[in-house]
Amino acid sequence: MFASTSPEEADASPAADRARGLLAGAAARQVHRVPGDGFVARDVLVDRDGTEHVRMDRRYQDLPVIGGDMVVHSRNGRVLSITQAEGMRSDARPQLKPGIDADRALLEAGSLFDGRIDDIAAQLVIYARGAAPTLAYQVSLTGQRSDQSPGNLSYYLDARNGKLLQEDDHFHTAAATGTGRSLTLGNVSIVTNSVSGGYQMTDPSRGNGQTLDARNRSSTSGATVFSDSDNTWGNNTVGDRASAAADAHYGVAATFDYFKNTHGRNGIGNNGNGVRSYVHWGSNYVNAGWNGSYMVYGDGDGVTYKPLVALDVAGHEMAHGVTGATARLGYYNVKDAGGLNESTSDIFGTLVEYGVANSNDPGDFLIGEEIYISNPGDTKALRLMFKQDADGKSFACYPAGGFSASLAYARGPHDPHQTSGVGNRFFYLLAQGAVAAPGFSYTPAQLVCNGDTGIVGIGRTKAGAIWYRALTRYFVSSTTYPQARTGTLQAAADLYGNGSAEYQAVARAWSAVQVN
């Protein structure tokens, strides 16, 4: 019935006022509210039955509380439930007198960055992703990494002694990894903008999203919007720089349309705004990514990898933006949340690919299979969603005790690109069931972790609806896999009924990946 289109609109809404009233009264004890706590709404969703879902950020003595975000679920003035992370289930609050000053925090954080620093700033926050809330400096840094990736990070340093509590990397990558005459989709229809003397790759129908040529620099400086005189872009080969641009431009439009037509979401921020895509990023850069405000696509190495502009990669990156605008799932150094973040992007990238149904890149549960120069049978991919552990390093089954925040660093044992295999397999089983994907000979027993080979899928549409509802209403920044089970079960109950066949399928699929 209602969805806010900006944090300002959300916070000024009657639903936000009602939620704040509940947090001051009936729900105060549940959220461990103490004097000095305040709550700011940044997203509001109201269902047809009047249920209100208000996503709140917590503040203490006017300082942001990192990890204190929550979603208040209510109807007719009564609390139904509250989704919150584990770190704020405490009445404890730290002393607000720092032991080091901001300059020391800037120095400490700057020494951790492996590249050129363009901008850096520090502010005091309450860090609540650890054992107890701690006064910390949040140091926000942008710059250029030594490996050509954009640098956009938040460092959280203990304000008592400068010890690093968490490095939060906002650049989320795809892997280690008119008429558009594209590289991977053949000739496709794309929307551009008519300007004096020709056309530009600006899409007025989707919030003026733009596709730009980074000119093989590792920076947005000097990038130019693709322009053309006849509105035909590229020649289906890397010999024309506009070919890769056509893939990226089309992929963003397809993803925009998927979220709008399927979930009623009008762009990443639900405000109708488009996004910028920079192709030809860096030199022989084998990666693509979302940095928090725009997307970048490398050209690959020209030996093993093409430009990383495949449809599911574009969908994957734009979905990172949707996650950032809603649940804000953590990435590195946050237990299970990084894997859920990556899995969310793989899920929606896959659903975009299925939705487009292009004969040159038909839907499948492989991520990035089109970026390989040689890939007979399309069996090679960045990730196999049904059996991600086939790469020898990823996970497909949830380990006892879950993943470790201390091991969830880039290219570490619990890197989000590897722990996402649990969520990816869950979604595959929920949508498709315990059946081998075309082109693969895995037995049903090889696709489950608990021997339950009789799982029957409920279809991609229902599975996608459940995941989107859980993401936007029940996931928060530090959600774990067991909490994701709870959130998706609630989403299934909301959509199809408590105890329905869909609800039971969600429970069974999670158990099949050992999330109980």
UniProtKB/TrEMBL annotation:
Q: The Peptidase M4 domain covers which part of the protein? A: 177-323
EC number, UniProt record = 3.4.24.-
Q: Which residues form the Peptidase M4 C-terminal domain?
A: 335-515
Q: What class of enzyme is it?
A: hydrolase
Q: Where is this region: Disordered?
A: 199-232
Task: Name all FTP domain ranges.
Answer: 37-83
**Entry cofactors:** Zn(2+)
Q: Where does the signal sequence lie?
A: none
Cellular compartment(s): Secreted
MF terms in GO: metal ion binding; metalloendopeptidase activity
Tell me the active site: 317, 417 (proton donor)
Lineage: superkingdom: Bacteria
Give the function comment from the record: Extracellular zinc metalloprotease.
Q: Describe the family membership recorded for this protein in Swiss-Prot or TrEMBL.
A: Belongs to the peptidase M4 family.
Q: What is this protein called?
A: Neutral metalloproteinase
Give the organism the record lists. Answer: Lysobacter silvisoli
